[in-house]
Design goal:
With 180 residues, the protein is of the alpha/beta class. 30% of the residues lie in helices and 18% in strands. Strands 3-2-1-6-4-7-5 form a 7-stranded parallel beta sheet, sandwiched between helices. The chain starts with a helix and ends in an 11-residue tail after the last helix.
């Protein structure tokens, strides 16, 4: 069995465990991972989603991913394999979520935004960005993570962790407290 086959087999096992064991986290936000690479970032994001109490993670446009970087968290955080960004967007929009995506040119930084309950954070592909056209989704708000070096962007799993931390921090790390 080669590495890819082992990864797929392990993924399917974790997917079955997730259906039986996962429970939404205490904080009212979700993550939408728009066509990320199948290597380590998706698993790391799910691991952080468990640590920071996410309700769910939508993995869009990916048939499987490496579960190893999740370090066992894949069975605890609800995650869904979704075919298209539009399908994920429509699902969360129908439930009243407000959408945020990341752009280094955005006017507001994540620490300046008062994320409402029912926030959905969209993270795009590491090399190509988002699969959707901004004009087709005018309700998506763009925010930035302040950076001071010369690097163009952060690793997607790091960016996801920062926004999840900021969401929890804005509520004093207390799931019962709404954003100010």
């Amino acid at each position: 069995m080669n590495k890819r086959q082992y990864m797929q087999k392990s993924f399917e096992r974790q997917r079955l465990l997730n259906k039986v064991m996962s429970k939404p986290g205490p904080f009212p936000y979700v993550l939408i991972l728009d066509h990320l690479k199948v290597d380590f970032n998706i698993g790391k994001i799910i691991r952080s989603a468990e640590a920071f109490g996410a309700q769910a993670v939508d993995v869009v446009g990916t048939s499987f991913f490496d579960p190893l970087p999740a370090k066992g968290c894949m069975k605890r955080v609800p995650w869904n394999m979704i075919k298209s960004f539009q399908e994920s967007y429509q699902n969360w929009e129908s439930q009243g979520f407000t959408f945020y995506a990341f752009d280094s040119e955005a006017a507001e930084s994540i620490h300046e935004v008062h994320f409402p309950d029912k926030s959905a954070f969209i993270l795009g592909h590491e090399g190509f960005g988002f699969t959707f056209k901004k004009d087709n989704y005018p309700k998506i708000k763009f925010v930035k993570i302040p950076q001071f070096g010369l690097v163009e962007s952060l690793n997607v799993s790091v960016a996801a962790s920062l926004v999840m931390y900021e969401f929890a921090r804005s509520r004093g790390f207390n799931p019962a407290v709404e954003s100010p």
